[in-house]
Design a protein that fits this description.
By secondary structure, this protein is α+β, with helices and mostly antiparallel strands. The chain is built from three helices and twelve strands; from the N terminus they run αββαβαβββββββββ. It has helices spanning 6-54, 78-87, 98-102; strands at 62-64, 67-71, 91-92, 103-105, 111-113, 120-126, 135-136, 161-167, 173-178, 184-190, 192-199, 202-209. The strands form three sheets. Strands 1, 2, 3, 6, 7, 8, 9 and 10 form an eight-stranded mixed β-sheet that branches. Strands 4-5 form a two-stranded antiparallel ribbon. Strands 11-12 form a two-stranded antiparallel sheet. Residues 64-188 form the C-type lectin domain. Pfam families: Lectin_C. Keywords: Disulfide bond, Membrane, Transmembrane, Transmembrane helix. The chain crosses the membrane at residues 23-42.
C-alpha cells in the first residue's frame, strides 16, 4: 500500500491551491462579463428612451423638459381656449417652476423666452371660482413664490377680469384680463413619465408615454 509522503502532500496542496485560484478567476471573469453586459444594456435603454422623449410630442407641438407646448396662431376667449386645449387632451399652460415661467418652445422648434416675445397669451391662470384666489385650470397647485404679476396687477378692473395672461412685451409678467377678450393661447400636456422599478437584477428603466386626463 502506498503511503502519503511529504511530496504527495505538497502536490495535493498545490493542486488544491491551483483549483481555488482557477475558481476565483472564473468567478471574477463571470462577474466582469455580467457587469459589462448590464452596463451595455443600460446604455442602450438610455439611448432608446432619449429618442422616445425627443419624438413624443404630437405634430405642431414642441417639447421642453418632458412637456409639450402648443402656441396658437389664432385667437380665442379664455373659455374657448381652455375648451380647445382640453379637446386636444391638454390644458391651458400652468407654470410649475421658474424655467417654465420664462422659457418654452416656438412652433418652429426654436427656443423662446416668454419675457422677450411681444405677444400676449392666455394661460390657465384664473380666479373664476373665488375672487382673488388664483388657480390653474389643470388643477395643478398655484405656487405663490412663482407669481409674476405686472406692477399693480391683478386689479380686477371694473370687476370683470378673472383670467390670466402672460404679457411678452412686459418681460413675461402676468396680467388679469376680461375672459371674453380674444387672445392667442398656450396649451400644454406632459410628454412622458419615467418610472424606475426595482427588480431582482437591479433597477429597470421604463418610459411610458401618456396624456393627462381632461
Amino acid at each position: 500500500m502506498h503511503t502519503l509522503g511529504s511530496d504527495d502532500v505538497i502536490i495535493g496542496q498545490s493542486l488544491s491551491l491551483s483549483l481555488s485560484l482557477s475558481l476565483y478567476i472564473y468567478i471574477y471573469i463571470y462577474i466582469y462579463i455580467y457587469i459589462y453586459i448590464y452596463i451595455y444594456i443600460y446604455k442602450l435603454l438610455l439611448i432608446f428612451s432619449s429618442s422616445l422623449i425627443v419624438n413624443q410630442c404630437r405634430q405642431g407641438w414642441r417639447e421642453y423638459e418632458s412637456k409639450c407646448y402648443f402656441f396658437s396662431t389664432d385667437t380665442k376667449s379664455w373659455p374657448e381656449a381652455n375648451a380647445h386645449c382640453m379637446e386636444q387632451n391638454s390644458h391651458l399652460m400652468s407654470i410649475q417652476d421658474i424655467h417654465e415661467r420664462v422659457r418654452s418652445s416656438n412652433p418652429d422648434g426654436t427656443r423662446i423666452c416668454l419675457r422677450f416675445t411681444f405677444k400676449i397669451f392666455w394661460i390657465g391662470l384664473n380666479d373664476l371660482i373665488v375672487e382673488g384666489i388664483w388657480e390653474w385650470s389643470d388643477g395643478k397647485p398655484f405656487i405663490e413664490y412663482l407669481s409674476f404679476w405686472m406692477s399693480g396687477q391683478p386689479d380686477n378692473w371694473n370687476n370683470t377680469e378673472d383670467c390670466g395672461q402672460v404679457v411678452g412685451y412686459n418681460f413675461g409678467h402676468w396680467n388679469d384680463e376680461n375672459c371674453a377678450a380674444k387672445r392667442k393661447y398656450i396649451c400644454k400636456y406632459i410628454n412622458c413619465k419615467e418610472i424606475w422599478k426595482p427588480s431582482s437584477n437591479g433597477l429597470i428603466f421604463y418610459l411610458l408615454p401618456f396624456t393627462e386626463d381632461k
